[in-house]
Amino acid sequence: MSDQAANLRRKMEMSRSIKRAKTLAIVSGKGGVGKSNFALNFSMTMAMKNKKVLIFDLDIGMGNIDILMGLTPKKTIINLFDQNLSIHDIIELGPNSLSYVAAGSGLNQIFSLNEDKFDYFLSQLDELMSLYDYIIFDMGAGVTEESVHYILAVDECIVVTTPEPTSLTDAYSMIKHLTHKRFNLPMSLIVNKAPSQKIGLRTSQRLFQVVQQFIKKEVATIGILPDDSTVGKAVIRQTPFVLYAPKSSISLAMNRIVDQYVRDYSEQDVKETVPFTHKLKQFLKKGRLS
User: Fold this and answer.
1) Is the pLDDT of residue 19 over 70?
2) What's the N-to-C CA distance of the chain in angstroms?
3) How many CB atoms lie within 10 A of CB 4?
4) What are the beta bridge partners of residue 136?
5) How confident is the model at residue 145, as a pLDDT?
């Protein structure tokens, strides 16, 4: 028995020492706030700083990460199940060695997998956790009872909003809903399309105060992105704006955000948390029982 206990301790110590990717969910309360553009350019900027990044497009009906890069993927996440492929078979490579998994049509089936397929999906995700520094999930606008499990299981959730009152209201509703489901879920805020730095700061402070007052939760702002015409031009060119115009105001702002984010990130924090795949399985099981 003592040998078994010693072996178990050794295995636990080894699992703690293995590098594990930090998992992030990029969400928004409503569409049209630039969530996917933020997710892509945030990921791309990290990759440009020699971080190993994988972005998963889990935006049902609006999956467009590949389109924003002007790429046509050979495989999508749907092929993982339809053709019983390995997760490595469906990972595509974008500019600057950014890895991505395209959404594909019929993506909604990933949120209603049977137990065998879900276990297979988790085993495949587990294989990726030690290969990347960051795994980023671009979720659909809003939240469903099916997709919420993926958001709740990540190490951190980034909420994208704009200064528009409707966007702020929807961002607050999103934060409230997720906090109700998992109070200790770390959440951060990005204010996008800000007409000025002053308006962006005022927006973030307003939301911070309301969330703190009524939900009793702190949601820090990790950055403010300006309303820059570069974004529209880059979308037309199907090129991430940090590559299309690296000296533009929004690209420079994104660089500052990523520099600060990477600097603040402590790998040790992630090592001591419950792995993403374990949490995902727990939340899904709880959801099916409730």
Assistant:
1) yes
2) 38
3) 8
4) 24, 55
5) 81
248: helix, strand or coil: coil
Scanning the chain, the segments in alpha helix (DSSP H) are 2-17, 35-48, 65-68, 77-82, 87-90, 115-128, 148-153, 165-181, 197-214, 230-236, 241-244, 249-264, 267-271, 276-289
Task: Indicate whether 275 belongs to any domain.
Answer: no
- Provide the domain count of the chain: 1
Q: What is the pTM of this model?
A: 0.90
Amino acid found at 9: R
Q: Is residue 283 situated within a structural domain? A: no
**What pLDDT band is residue 289 in, cutting at 50, 70 and 90?**
very low
**What are the distances in angstroms from CA 256 to CA 31, 47, 96, 100?**
25, 14, 18, 23
Which amino acid is located at 89 in the chain?
D
Q: Tell me the CATH number at 31.
A: 3.40.50.300
The token duo for 110 is 């990933």
Render the burial of 113-125: b for 16+ CB within 10 Å, e for the rest.
Answer: beeeebebbbebb
Q: Measured between alpha carbons, how far is 40 from 141 in angstroms, rounded to an integer?
A: 15
In this predicted structure, what is the pLDDT of residue 173?
A: 97
> 3-state DSSP call for residue 280?
helix
Quote the CA–CA distance of 254 and 263 in Å, as a whole number.
14
Question: Residue 208 in contact with residue 221, Cβ under 8 Å?
Answer: yes
pLDDT tens, residue by residue, 119-175: 999 999 999 999 999 999 999 898 888 789 999 999 999 999 999 999 999 999 999
**Beta partners for residue 277, in sequence order:** none
Non-local CB neighbours of 269 within 8 Å, separated by 6+ positions: 155
| Residue that the structure tokens 């489901």 belong to | 181
Containing structural domain, residue 38: 20-263
